[in-house]
């Protein structure tokens, strides 16, 4: 059955709510990283997102192989890269912006796996947005921040792969997929944290948690993961990837605003310009039908 291509008002509000939750999430990650190293924070996130819920919610009716792949790409790899990138110095606002290249990865993977061919307007909108990402790359300075940029690009590729697996699994309960996907990611990241960060760092972090970091972790788990990814899985399953995914280009706008408000991140002119191009590309892709109508009307009036 083909996915629906038009969002009704209630689902439009739903996807905008997800955008708001995920935009603020980058500030929460920054705050949590003040108490926890990135791999440990990832393991805590996955563990709390999966337990005890998997004991009450049946596993999605899909092969274990697909659920494990989903957990690895959509959670272990994506958030391992995001948390490490922010830990290395890329700001929450920039992180939220760079991550949106997943739109281009998603379009490419959707075409390759599902023959979901993007229109010329979607391609043009992506190119407009790509100019904004190019502005970010030009202004990134410092080896650690540049490495953070690379990690964010890898995170975006992992997210795109997770979107494809979400459509392939077709879980009846998107939230169940979130629970069990986090369960698959949890032991992987726990082992990585133990090996690379070490038991002493883990013990010290758990003994010196600040109230702000605890609140940030709770937001990451119950708002960003449970609410955000549960609703996102429903939309990805119900609508074409090319309809839903472009809305994530609004996440960096929320990320910049929340980062400036809570963390004092400076909104330089180039960040505003980069956001303008990204938002412009989103609008161009979303208004495809209206643009076609204008073009057809122009042809009928002046070229007939």
Give a written overview of the molecule.
With 304 residues, the protein is mainly alpha-helical. The chain has one domain (9-303). The chain has helices spanning 9-32, 38-50, 64-87, 92-98, 102-114, 120-139, 143-169, 174-196, 199-207, 211-238, 241-244, 251-263, 269-286, 288-303. The model has no long low-confidence stretch (mean pLDDT 84).
Strand composition percent: under 5%
- The number of helical segments is 14
How do the SSEs run, as a string of H and E?
HHHHHHHHHHHHHH
Based on Cα principal axes, name the global outline: globular
Number of beta strands: 0
Number of domains: 1
Quick check: average pLDDT?
84
Largest sheet: none
Q: Which secondary-structure class do the elements indicate?
A: mainly alpha
Low-confidence stretches: none
The end-to-end span amounts to 38 Å
The percent range for helix content is over 70%
Radius of gyration: 20 Å
Keywords:
304 residues; mainly alpha
